[in-house]
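Aim 2, interim progress: modelling of the adenosine monophosphate-bound target.
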Amino acid sequence: MQGLMMDMPLLVSSILEHATRHHGDAEIVSRRVEGDIHRYTYADLNVRARALASAFTLQGVAVGDRIATLAWNGYRHLEIYYGVGGMGAVVHTINPRLHPEQIAWIINHAGDTHLAFDLTFLPIIQAIAPLCPGVKSWIAMVDGDRQPSVAGLELVNYEELIASGDSGYRWPELDERTAVGLCYTSGTTGNPKGAMYAHRSTVLHAYAAALPDAMGASARDSVLPVVPMFHVNAWSIPYVCPLVGAKMVFPGPNLDGKSLYELFEAEGVTYAAGVPTVWQGLLQHLRSNKLRFSTLTRTVIGGSACPPAMIDAFRIEFGVDVIHAWGMTEMSPLGTLSRLQLKHLKLDENAQRQILAKQGHVVFGVDMKIVSDDMADLPWDGSTPGNLLVRGPWVIREYFRGEGGDPLVYDADGRGWFPTGDVATIDADGYMQITDRSKDVIKSGGEWISTIDLENLAVAHPAVAQAAVIGIAHPKWDERPLLIVVKQPGAEVTREELIEFYKGKVANWWIPDDVQFVEAIPLGATGKILKTKLREQFRDYQLPQ
Ligand code: AMP
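Predicted structure of the complex, ligand included:
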């Protein structure tokens, strides 16, 4: 027997329709590349997104076509999310921090037919246009009177494009499995691979992300995503905010501590989200200028491990709760978030801190487990590390164009799981803690050493700004940890002091054999430490005997 409920497809256009009808006057505030602050509402967004969909339709864009963006967080980028996605085409967000050749490779692989860009990225467009013959129009997202002209390259103006469309356009009732977004993995090894999101997966993910023990956003929030819309849809905040009716605040290209802080204060931001490296700049700005947040109450931090020292700084110094989250491009991205449960409220502060420092609990929709290399399930005891596998309706089943073959691994019941490439422990309450990427974990004397744990401890030292740990080949132990440190500006610390700092905090055999001080640690396009680069840099390095 079938249920007798209406069969309504889950579509991103319905999120925008809901926001327009029920939160039509909620604000969207953007710092523009033009330099000024732009403000309008969800109702205005809908009018322009419809006009954009109509204009693209007139240009011959059809369901399934890929439209690329090279853009900051801002209202025009949001219009493209909804205009392009709503009409059944695919928004392909590209990370502008990649090399131009890699960007061109991705555009050609995706088969993008149009590309919209913020003016900041005009030099990239000039470099890649000759390499991307499939792109029919390059669209400058800027006011008409600021439209640049470039010799040998015809640029379309975004505002003129919108003006050519009809805001009376009606969103089509698509199959909910229709593709809506495409995002390539950062591809630290090999070519990047595309994760293709569907309307259904995106709407389900947004519902889950909005739950109180996930991101917990509401119509009383003013939300500022620092995490870029070119990195896994800014963790789905562009879908979560209209779904709950929250005010949105976009920082545009200005991501330094001062600009962010000013925007937080001016727009009453209550909720923010970003990777740990961004918050370092913000915290430094607050400390050196003796500033406080007047409205910010919580921030989601993920993308790489958030050091407990940063969680403490936010909470103790600035009264802001950190929600530590874990996910990946292939998971839309949310997998787990760390929030306390009723039974944890009676624990002492230190025990609560330890829970909140973990990557956290799954949201309903994601199933996870840890397994050994031969796929045997490992215990949830909080100490046995294993390969982390996931499954769920917003986890990919294959990459775009079947790249890399079948990515899944199969259990004894024939169910497919996505291998995350992360190594983790899971405790009896289901809280997951990442110990490493599987290729970064240090194997020493047959045991594993977590580089994330060692890095988290190092950055708790007041003289350490940034830390990375890599394994160095060792004749007896296979590998031993080397700590690489960037000092805080003006601070001094010695190798011996740092090694001493570890004593009593980890098992003796985990303590790094040596410390190297560097000016900077290489970061990848999404703000993660590039360990491959570091390993290359220290290839000839010899550990002290
Ligand atoms: P990406 O697809 O670029 O977002 O990268 C996903 C990877 O980032 C994950 O597989 C993890 O290795 C890492 N990652 C994301 N969030 C966290 C976190 N909170 N702690 C540790 N690693 C993380």
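The radius of gyration is 24 Å. The chain is about 30% helix and 25% strand.
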